[in-house]
Amino acid sequence: MIDFSKISNIWFIGAGGIGMSALARYFAVGGFKVAGYDRVETSLTRTLNAEGINIIYKDDIAEIPGEFRDKAKTLVIYTPAVPRSNKIFSYLSTEGFNMHKRSVILGIISQNTRTIAIAGTHGKTSVSTITAHLLKQSDVDCSAFLGGISKNYQTNMLTGESNITVMEADEFDRSFHCLEPEIALITSMDADHLDVYETYDNMVKAYEEFAGKIKDEGILVLNEKISGKIRRRGNIKTYTYGFSPTADFYVSDISTENQTYSFRVNTPWGVIDDLKLLIAGRMNIENSLGAIALAMLAGVKDNEIRKALIYYKGVARRFDIRIDSDKIIYIDDYAHHPEEIDYCIESVREFYGKRKVTGIFQPHLYTRTRDHAEGFAASLDKLDSVILLPVYAAREKPVSGVGTEMIYEKMKLENKMLARKDEVTWILESMEIDILLTLGAGDIDKLVEPIETMLRKKLS
């Protein structure tokens, strides 16, 4: 166990990651001196610097501030995405600093708070953010570590007065096995991170192990679509959610008017009617349903849920509508798995009818591209046209024979092209754009503002 009473400095390796930055903010609010390293400067690291968290970008031990060289007073938190060849990591490890993965630190926090943990191959960031919003707008309150930037609060870390903590549970590197939640929810279990798990069965077993970490007399909430895949422990209560009346929490009477959803939620304790959601996409009704189940189980009242939901604004890069006009609609989304792309495209078709949809997709990871090339091709074929960018490697080295071309060659869509990231804006300038989607979990987000600026000029 870490004795935080003896720690005054916390150094982050990979500080700019969405999960790491939330932890950095958490400790800064707690009164610790916080700083760290990341490979590149981003809008998120600039924000951290503006908040007083000094981030360096040069992998050079000489850049580490003097106070963070005190082993007795410094805790080092790192992400597995940072290679061990990193000079700063190697130096701190060799010198015997107290070093822990992000997941271990979150695990310690989960042991000491009433934690609500949300896992799943897709949807977990949205469910986590909606859950945190519903709790923050109620008498229950919470703190929260989120996997995206909440548009309501403009941050990925919330602090509250209660002892409840909402956490996104990351399945990569089996990180979620460090958590000990009181309540856990699993949104989905599509095959992913097979570079870690090798087989789908191994991945499912990992989710079962996560569910096994729930504290005695705790609660597990499962999407009805996967409820039969997880073995249930006898000393915890299990609920399901979905669109079917056989689920414990289910949605009914869905209608759409003026790009607003209205629906009812049927619960084991009655019906919450007249719920309204201003975020597009049927998947966001499902995400809201999971969050409503968690909020109710945490003690949030029906009317508090009703009032808070209508003011929910969404998460940056999750069906993020950047431009919404009669002439051009531009939506940015983090979708990086075939199932997520399907959800996104289906939501666009549902909300905007038969308008022409162009997509720009950047595959994330060579292994995911290799494992899901056919799935990506089938999903992207549902667009009217597509621009495919090179694979974003992230933590991986290139895999021989694997690239975006694998997806391109498997696609049936005729109106498709391969392009570099720096070619995108001028390609779009010459195209007729009706609805545009940017899709991917890599650095495609750096194109969002230039694309939005260019499209707004087209409108003017």
Please provide a brief summary of the model.
By secondary structure, this protein is an alpha/beta fold.
Task: Describe this protein's structure.
- It is a single chain.
- This protein has 460 residues and is an alpha/beta fold.
- The chain has three domains: 4-100, Rossmann fold, CATH 3.40.50; 113-309, Mur-like, catalytic domain (UDP-N-acetylmuramoyl-L-alanine:D-glutamate ligase), CATH 3.40.1190.10; 320-459, Alpha-Beta Complex (Protein-Tyrosine Phosphatase, Chain A).
- The chain is 32% helix and 24% strand.
- It has 14 helices and 21 strands.
- It has helices at residues 18-29, 43-50, 87-94, 102-111, 124-136, 194-197, 200-211, 282-297, 302-309, 338-352, 366-380, 404-410, 424-429, 448-459, and strands at residues 9-13, 33-37, 54-56, 74-78, 98-101, 114-119, 143-150, 155-158, 164-168, 183-186, 219-223, 237-242, 249-257, 260-267, 270-277, 320-324, 329-333, 357-361, 385-388, 416-418, 435-439.
- It is globular, with a radius of gyration of 22 Å.
Q: Compute the CA-based radius of gyration.
A: 22 Å
Strand segment count: 21
- CATH fold node name of the largest domain: UDP-N-acetylmuramoyl-L-alanine:D-glutamate ligase
The CATH homologous superfamily of the largest domain? Mur-like, catalytic domain
Shape descriptor: globular
What's the SSE blueprint?
Elements (H helix, E strand, L loop, with lengths): L8 E5 L4 H12 L3 E5 L5 H8 L3 E3 L17 E5 L8 H8 L3 E4 H10 L2 E6 L4 H13 L6 E8 L4 E4 L5 E5 L14 E4 L7 H4 L2 H12 L7 E5 L13 E6 L6 E9 L2 E8 L2 E8 L4 H16 L4 H8 L10 E5 L4 E5 L4 H15 L4 E5 L4 H15 L4 E4 L15 H7 L5 E3 L5 H6 L5 E5 L8 H12 L1
Parallel strand pairs: 1-2, 1-4, 2-3, 4-5, 6-9, 6-10, 7-9, 10-11, 11-12, 12-13, 17-21, 18-19, 18-21, 19-20
Antiparallel strand pairs: 7-8, 13-14, 14-15, 16-17
Helix pairs in contact: 5-8, 5-9, 10-11, 11-12
